[in-house]
Amino acid sequence: MADEKLFLSVTDYAAHRRARGLRGCSRKAVYAALSKDWIVRESDGLIEAHAADRAWAAHTQAPSEPEGHVRMPNGDVLDMKQERALKIHQERIKLELQNKKTRGELIERDLVCAHWADVATTIREQILAIPDRLAAQVVAIDNGHAARELLKVELSHALTRLADDLDEKYSATDG
C-alpha cells in the first residue's frame, strides 16, 4: 500500500504530518513550504503526501559534512585534518617556549614589568632633580640662549648618568 499515491488538501496534508509526528504540521507551515517550492501542488491543487514528505525532508535535513569534517553545535564546520595539524603546531610552540624558559632565554613578564618600573622611577628622579640643581644658576642668567644651553647640558648629563647607571645595574644581573 506504500506505493499508492495519497493526494491531500493543504489542511489534510498538515494533519497527515501531525499524525506521523513530523515537524511542520500546521497549515501555515505547509503554505510556507509551498511558497519555498519545497513541496508542490498537483494541477488539481492537491499535494501528493509521500512525495511531499520526501521533498520536505530533503530541504530541512542538515547537510551532511564531507569526510573528515565535523559540524560543531554552534554551526561551524571543522576540517579535522586541519584541526589536528593546528593542535600539533600549537603544542610545538608551547614546547619550544618551555624549552626557551628552561634554558633561560625567556624572561617572565612580572620580572620585566618590575625592571621597567624601576627604570621609570630612576628616570623620573633624575629629571625632577634638575630644577633644584639649576634654580640658582637660571635666575642669574639674563640671556635666553645661555639658559637654554645650560638646560641642554644639564639634561644631557642627567641622561648620560642615567644610561651609565642602568648599564652598570643591568649588566651586573646578566651574568
Description:
The chain is 67% helix and 6% strand. The protein has a two-stranded antiparallel sheet. With 175 residues, it is mainly alpha-helical. The protein is elongated, with a radius of gyration of 40 Å. Among the domains are: 7-60; 109-174.
Mass-distribution shape: elongated
Structural class: mainly alpha
Report the β-strand fraction as a percent range: 5-15%
Number of helices: 6
The overall average pLDDT, rounded, is 86
How would you write the strand order of the largest sheet?
Answer: 1-2
Number of strands: 4
Unreliable segments of 5+ consecutive residues: none
Q: Kindly state the percentage of residues in helix.
A: 55-70%
Order of helices and strands: EHHEHEEHHH
Radius of gyration: 40 Å
Biggest β-sheet description: 2 strands, antiparallel
Distance between the termini: 91 Å
Topology:
Elements: E1 7-8, H1 10-19, H2 27-35, E2 47-48, H3 49-60, E3 69-71, E4 77-79, H4 80-102, H5 109-140, H6 144-174
Antiparallel strand pairs: 1-2, 3-4
Helix pairs in contact: 1-2, 5-6
Q: What's the gist of this structure?
A:
This protein is mostly helical. The protein has helices at about 10-20, 25-35, 50-60, 80-100, 110-140, 145-175; strands at about 5-10, 45-50, 70, 75-80.
Keywords for this entry:
175 residues, mainly alpha, two-stranded antiparallel ribbon, 6 helices, 67% helix, elongated
